[in-house]
Design a protein that fits this description.
This protein has 164 residues and is of the alpha+beta class. Helices cover 37% and strands 42% of the residues. Helix 3 (60-73) packs across helix 4. The protein is globular.
Length: 164
């Protein structure tokens, strides 16, 4: 095996771990783990989910604060990510992977489940601390359940965090 082939395998393994840390960080609310996947500046493109959410650069800290609020309001979540594909060019890479994200919350306002199906097309850069996402793009393929649940989770999470 050549050195280039070996480096490709190492890079793919590290990129797979990067996207899995993204999912596990959210689902376990391990915010240090979740923050570790992002460069200091990142573009989160969820415009397929909500066209009003413009994909603009933001700080990883601001992105983290938003996730903490939303996920504090959920009862649970579970993100499945697989069928990984990698395009690696030196110190930049694109990770494409299918996803299914389950979100549960007892609201009394419709169903207690919201599921998103889609494909992530994420861009990463190799840093001195390993690979980091610089752009996360969700291509939403299908939704099932109560879409209202995510906005309600944000409202409830904000109240929970304010109460301490």
């Amino acid at each position: 095996m050549s050195e280039a082939q070996l480096q490709r395998l190492v890079d793919e393994s590290e990129l797979r771990d990067l996207i899995h840390r993204y999912a596990f960080g959210l689902d376990t609310q391990d915010w240090e783990l979740w923050r570790s996947v992002f460069a200091d500046s990142v573009v989160m493109d969820l415009s397929d989910y909500d066209p009003d959410l413009k994909p603009v650069p933001t700080t990883a800290g601001k992105l983290l604060r938003g996730a903490v609020v939303t996920f504090a309001g959920l009862d649970r979540s579970q993100h499945f990510i697989g069928s990984h594909r990698y395009s690696i060019d030196g110190d930049t890479a694109t990770v494409t992977a299918h996803m299914r994200a389950e979100h549960w919350m007892t609201t009394g306002k419709g169903g207690d489940r919201y599921t998103m199906y889609g494909t992530y097309e994420n861009e990463a850069t190799r840093t001195s601390d390993g690979w980091k996402f610089t752009r996360v793009k969700l291509r939403l393929l299908r939704e099932e359940g109560n879409r209202f649940l995510m906005a309600e989770a944000g409202r409830v999470g904000k109240a929970k965090l304010a109460d301490g």
